[in-house]
Design brief:
By secondary structure, the protein is α/β, with parallel strands linked by helices. It contains nine helices and 15 strands. The chain folds into two domains: 154 residues, Medium-chain alcohol dehydrogenases, catalytic domain (Quinone Oxidoreductase, Chain A, domain 1), CATH 3.90.180.10; 154 residues, NAD(P)-binding Rossmann-like Domain (Rossmann fold, 3-Layer(aba) Sandwich), CATH 3.40.50. Helix 2 packs across helix 3, helix 2 packs across helix 8 and helix 5 packs across helix 6. The relative contact order is 0.15. It binds NADP nicotinamide-adenine-dinucleotide phosphate. NADP nicotinamide-adenine-dinucleotide phosphate (NAP) binds next to helix 2 and helix 3. Keywords: Oxidoreductase.
């Protein structure tokens, strides 16, 4: 059968552009043990920018001239496996294409009772798991602490804020517009939020701490890096913890970006800063799902999403919309439904 998929055809320099990819029509041949999945939605995520470069990182670069990969939801259309019957809703890693040929061990059948399939890409997927790992396994969050989350209107950030709130924490968010700041408070329950364009992050964070009447931060969940990280280090209390999740402010940089200039404070205040990769924590995934599924089903945690494209032809422009960020709140998705 015919399939359409997005191939990386050259490595972007700085901000990616549409000519970096091609939408290719090709034949899809099912292997003996493979099932046919019609993809319904795919996730676009900042880490994909890193995979478009050749530079070594924690994950293999995308190959030139081949379909890219990433998380997707789909419906099984052909299967001889009784454990994964036709009609099963599944999550897998073969996004960036309309159909996927998958062995049963390369997909996960997901529960959609009282849930959207795309919740398994958002709050219940890698996005929510990243927030949970950063707060619990890395930062060792305790009830009632003061937590700062950058990119608080983003996929991971919106969930991190809600999880911290569920632990009775005071939550401060930063994001890229006043509208987003309002949503971060109204929809995701942050105590306060600021638009980082409104001044120096250092001053805005100090103002936010004064507003919530807290002496400093116990935890910083970093999605952004650069100026945000330096400002957060300055605002940390003794024994504070920083979970380094992402650094989107530097992903498109073409030159090395200087690190925080105030690392001496890490010593004086006995701070701990730790980077993490969510995939290293798969052993705790069931624990996360047990906790999170109930929170999402009950509405205690919402799984926000923005559709940045419709159809495979809009998948890459959707990715560019995500990187730009202004039009995206929560998890960025491309719909692949008809
Ligand atoms: N460590 C791991 O295992 C792991 C796993 C998943 C994701 N991550 C990382 O975690 C972070 C969050 O992931 P996500 O999928 O939820 O993405 P995300 O936060 O939704 O990323 C997109 C958002 O980033 C913000 N942004 C873009 N440029 C920025 C800049 N220069 N400064 C500040 N904010 C900027 C934009 O929002 P504004 O309008 O607010 O600027 C945009 O909507 C990313 O850095 C990602 O790479 C890490």
């Amino acid at each position: 059968m015919r399939n359409r998929e997005v191939h990386l055809v050259r490595r972007p320099v700085g901000t990616p552009v549409p000519d970096d990819v091609d939408v290719v029509t090709c034949d899809l041949v099912l292997g003996a043990d493979q099932l046919l999945v019609r993809n319904t939605a795919m996730s676009v995520e900042p880490y994909m920018r890193g995979r478009m470069s050749e530079a070594a990182s924690y994950v293999e670069p995308y190959a030139l001239g081949e379909a890219m990969t990433g998380h997707a939801t789909g419906v099984v259309e052909r299967s001889d496996d009784p454990a994964v019957p036709v009609g099963s809703v599944v999550v897998h890693q073969q996004g960036w294409r309309e159909y996927a040929a998958l062995a049963p061990q390369d997909l996960e059948v997901v529960d959609v009772e009282g849930l959207k399939a795309t919740d398994h890409l958002g709050a219940l997927g890698q996005t929510g798991f990243t927030a949970w790992v950063g707060l619990h396994a890395i930062a060792g969050l305790r009830d009632g602490e003061t937590v700062f989350v950058s990119s608080a209107a983003g996929g991971v950030g919106a969930i991190a804020g809600q999880l911290a709130k569920a632990r009775g924490c005071t939550t401060i968010g930063s994001c890229g517009s006043q509208d987003k700041a309002k949503r971060v408070v109204a929809d995701f329950g942050f105590d306060t939020a600021f638009d980082y364009h409104d001044g120096s992050v250092r001053d805005l964070l100090a103002g936010a701490l004064a507003e919530v009447d807290r002496p400093g931060l116990d935890v910083y969940f970093d999605n952004v890096g650069a100026e945000h990280l330096e400002a957060a280090i300055r605002a940390m209390r003794d024994n504070g913890r920083i979970a380094l999740c992402g650094a989107i402010a530097v992903y498109n940089a073409t030159e090395p970006v200087p690190g925080p200039r105030n690392l001496l404070l890490m010593i004086w205040r006995r701070l701990r800063m730790e980077g993490f990769i969510v995939g290293d924590h798969d052993g705790r995934r069931q624990e996360f799902l047990d906790e999170m599924t109930g929170l999402v089903r009950s509405g205690a945690v919402v799984s926000p999403e923005t559709y940045v494209g419709h159809g495979i032809d809009e998948a890459f422009s959707g990715f560019l919309t995500l990187l730009d960020g202004r039009a995206v709140t929560g998890k960025a998705l491309v719909s692949l439904e008809d």
